[in-house]
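Bug #77: duplicate submission created two jobs. Keeping one. Sequence:
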Amino acid sequence: MIPLLVIPYADDFILFNLARYTTFRAGAACLTALMVALLFGGRIIRWLRGFQNGGQPIREDGPPSHLLTKKGTPTMGGVMILLALCLGVLLWADLRNGFIWAVLFVTLGYGALGFVDDWLKVTRRNSRGVPGRIKLAVQAGVGLIAALWMAALLPPGLDDNLAVPVFKEVLIPLSIAFPLVAMFVMMGASNAVNLTDGLDGLAIVPVMIAAAVFALIAYLVGNRIFADYLQLHGVPGAGELAVFCSALIGASLGFLWYNAPPAAVFMGDTGSLALGGALGAIAVATKHEIVLAIVGGLFVVETLSVIIQVFWFKRTGRRVFLMAPLHHHFEKKGWPEATIVIRFWIIAMILALVGLSTLKIR
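Kept job's structure:
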C-alpha cells in the first residue's frame, strides 16, 4: 500500500524514493510485523486465555512432563503471527503483484483451517479437531487453486516444469501434473511444520531460517541481473516475495518473544499450517520446490519419523522410535527440552546453508 501511495511523489520528495527498493521495503516490513506482534501480543494472549478455559489440551499419551509444564498454556497464537504478517505485507508490498496475493491466499486459507481445528480442540477439551480427511481435502483445494494461480503467473517454460537444483539446465516436464505437484509441495510443507511444532520455540526458529533463505532466493530470481549471473531460472515479479518473507521473519520474531521457554502461548495449527503453507507456496513461486526440502530438512525428518513409526507399527506391532515425531523420541530418552530445541535449531541452520550452496553450485 505505502509504495503505491508514495512512489508517484518520489521525484519531489527524495525519501519517498526509498519505497522503490525491495530491500528497503523488506526491512520495513520486518520491523512493522515485529512491532505489531510485540505491541498486540500481550492483548491477544489475554484474549486467547479468556475463552480457552484451560489452554491447549495436552495429549495423555505424550511425554509426562508436558502435563506439568505445558498444561494451561493457551494455543492459537498463530493469530498473532498472521495479524503481524498481513499488516507488514499489506503496508509495504507492491499490491499489484500477483505472487503476493497467491501466497497470502495459501497462508490465510491454511491459517483459517488451523483456526477451526484449534477452536474445536479448545471448546471440546480434547486433542481431536477437524477430521483428518476433511483437513486434507481443504488443504488440497486451497493448494490446487493457488497452484493454478501461480502457474498462470510464471513465465512460459517454467509454468509446467520442476527445476532441479545444481543442474542449471535441467527441468523436469510435468505438463498438466504441475499443479498437482505444486499442491502437494504446499500441503507437505504445511503438515511438516505442524508435526514439528511440539516444543517451545522448536518450529518457529526453523521457519524463520527457511524464510530468510527464501527471502534471498526470491530477491535473486526476481532480479534479472542476479538470476543471469548465478544461472538461476528468473521469475519476473518473484522478488516482491522477499518483502513477504521479511514480514514473516518479523512476525515470527515477535511471536518468539512470547513463545520462548516457558511459552506463554503456542502457535497451534492456526500458525503451523499457515507458516508451512506459506513456505511451500513461496518455493513454488520461486521454482525452488526441491530446495525447500533441503532448507526445511528438519521438517522433512520429523515427518518421516511419523511415517516410519506408523508404517512399522502396523506391520510388526513394534515401534522404531520411543515416540514420534522425532523430538518426542529424544524427550523419552531423557534429553532436556532446551537441549532438543537448540540442537534442532543448529541442524536447521546447517541445512539452510546447504540449501543456499545450491545457488552457486551449478
